Amino acid sequence: MGQGCLIRILSPPEEAGGHEVYDISFETGGSLKSQPHARGATEQLTVLEGAVRVTSGTASNDLAQGDTARYAADVAHAIEATEPARVFLIVKNA
To answer: What are the phi and psi torsion angles at 15 (to 5°)?
Structure first.
């Protein structure tokens, strides 16, 4: 569930549920909270602008422009902007 964010899907529709690519812009405090995806699913997020906090399960990391995180997406996970931000997100479902 997204709040204070604009999500652009870059991958073709036939890739839904498999390999998905997103360009997401956040306002300060904006967030994208997700329930667990399929078992073995992972996400890779690169911060293009600004800063975000990524939480996967109980692990949390602060990322700044140019940082990349790879994390489990088969647990509850979230992206929260600590300042206006833009990220590139790849979702890979197993």
So the answer is: -90, -10
Three-state DSSP class for residue 14: helix
Identify the residue whose tokens are 């206006």. Answer: 84
Q: Are 65 and 51 in contact (CB under 8 A)?
A: yes
Closest CA to 83 of 6, 31, 9, 23: 31
What is the per-residue pLDDT across 9-50, written as a single tens digit (0 to 9) for each? 999 888 777 889 999 999 999 999 999 999 999 999 999 999
Q: What is the pTM of this model?
A: 0.92
Bridge-based pairing of strands 51-56 and 85-92 is: unpaired
The DSSP element (H or E) to which 30 belongs, if any, is strand 19-34
Q: Phi and psi for 67 in degrees, rounded to 5?
A: -80, 150
In angstroms, the CA 64 to CA 14 distance is 32
